[in-house]
Amino acid sequence: MLWPRFRCPSTSHSSLIAMRRLLLLVLAAAPAAAAGGEMGYTHCACDGEGGGGGFWSLDNIFKWQKVSDLLIAAAYFSIPLELLYFVAGLRHLLPFRWVLVQFGAFIVLCGLTHLLAAFTYEPHPFMVVLLLTAAKFLTALVSFLTAITLLTLIPQLLRVKVRESLLWIKARELDREVVLMKRQEEASWHVRMLTQEIRRSLDRHTVLYTTLIELSRVLALNNCAVWMPSEDKSGMCLTHELRRGSDGEAVVSADDKDVLEVKSSDGVKLLPPESVLGSASGGGKEGTGTVAAIRMPMLKVADFKGGTPEVIQTSYAVLVLVPPSDRNWAPHELEIVEVVADQVAVALSHASLLEESQAMRDRLAEQNRELLQARRDALMANEARDAFQRVMSQGMRRPIHSILGLVSVVQEEGLTPEQKLVIDTMARTATVVSTLIKDVMEMSAVNQERFPLETRPFHLQSMIRDAACVARCLCDFRGFGFAVHIENALPDLVIGDERRIFHVLLHMVGNLIGRIDAGNVTFRVRADDETMEDQRWDPWRPSYSVLAEAKR
């Protein structure tokens, strides 16, 4: 026996009503069928020969049931294909695909039971009954699992519905925020445009008139006016106006209530049209709306201190905006007015700064020209000094080299000990002079005040004898008496800079006889008992301080 099955094609309200009516019809037919047995219709006459005549004969009923089962099976088999096509197209977006798979299996099994039932209205083998029983069992199992799945799925769907409602609320809030952001972006665009127009000029009058024109165009105003304090600070004078209202000079007292409120407020102050500032700034037009007024700091730039100008706030100007009578000020429009007022104050301060910066630039240009001239003079002096040093080096080194060559030739001749001492002294003195010339050239070239010592082993006693010989010659030339005392304990082979030590000795003697007119000079050399730990090496300097013993 086949049980009637119903399938709801959609979840709309009308479909639910139709489904409820069909269910009530089935429930109402069940008692009628039960009552038919009591009224005498206990058999369906399935075993009769004709089953009755007419349209409602048993054969016709079986045919209609068979056709109905085939159509139901065809419909059940087509619905899973449509669901499969739908799921394949939205496999990345559709949630709960496994639920659709269960529904598809349930529908396919229902269609299979109807298809097998279509073969039971005629004589059929036992295999058909067995297959029909298996199909019904699988259908019952899958339908039961699907019902359990729906019990867990419905709360999730309800939560999804709640989330959808929350998302709709959030979307509406985001729409409002987007509208506000667009208004802010529009206000920012107007501010940038006005700022660019204002900063195109550094003339005060051009800046103010550009501000009035652009504000009137952007905000659709009847008139714009700028009031500045008078020289004695007792009143506010109408100095700039977009549309001239009267030929006379408009002056408002600085002690007026509206003027004091505007100057004491940091933001935009809304004034009634009949106020003193509103009526005087109307431009001669009737029917004006609420007037917006804002103060503008008049910045004065003092002298430069440490590279930064000192800004002193002296007074305020007042910017008055007169809209039409049907206009109400929006918050973003007031924000535009505040930002533009700040930009105008900055532009006016830049215009004031331009004059001082131009004067400072002229002075710096003059100083730069003087520095360039001084640099050129210094370069010319350095070139002249270098040329002089080259000439002096060539002019002084050549004679010294000639003397050294001549002395070296004489040293090869057979000389007496006295002559050899004099010739060696001359050679050593020429070497010292050559070293001094070299030091002077290097000191002038690299601008250094210290020279490294060229230490090597040398004979100290021989060098001292040569120095004493030169010192004797100098003393004899100046008329000084000269005596030499050299200790026997003086070492002979030592390590040091022989040429610079010889130079120091000559410098000591020359400095001594240069400061006195007559007397005796004693050249005394002795060995010091200073230990090696107490000795220290000092770098060579061009000036010396030498200890010596002199006797007058």
TrEMBL record:
The keyword Amino-acid biosynthesis does not apply. It is an enzyme of class 2 (transferase). Residues 384-449 form the Signal transduction histidine kinase dimerisation/phosphoacceptor domain. Residues 1-34 form the signal peptide. Keywords: ATP-binding, Coiled coil, Copper, Endoplasmic reticulum, Ethylene signaling pathway, Kinase, Membrane, Metal-binding, Nucleotide-binding, Receptor, Signal, Transferase, Transmembrane, Transmembrane helix, Two-component regulatory system. Residues 350-384 form a coiled coil. Residues 203-358 form the GAF domain. GO terms for cellular component: endoplasmic reticulum membrane. InterPro entries: ETR1_N, GAF, GAF-like_dom_sf, HATPase_C_sf, HisK_dim/P_dom, HisK_dim/P_sf. Its EC number is 2.7.13.3. It comes from the Eukaryota. The keyword Transferase applies. It is a multi-pass membrane protein. It is found in: Endoplasmic reticulum membrane. It catalyses: ATP + protein L-histidine = ADP + protein N-phospho-L-histidine. SMART domains: GAF (SM00065), HisKA (SM00388). The chain crosses the membrane at residues 70-88, 100-121, 127-154. One of its GO terms (molecular function) is ethylene receptor activity. Its cofactor is Cu cation. GO terms for biological process: negative regulation of ethylene-activated signaling pathway. Belongs to the ethylene receptor family. PANTHER family: ETHYLENE RECEPTOR 3 (PTHR24423:SF624), TWO-COMPONENT SENSOR HISTIDINE KINASE (PTHR24423). Homodimer. This is histidine kinase. The lineage of its organism: Eukaryota, Viridiplantae, Streptophyta, Embryophyta, Tracheophyta.
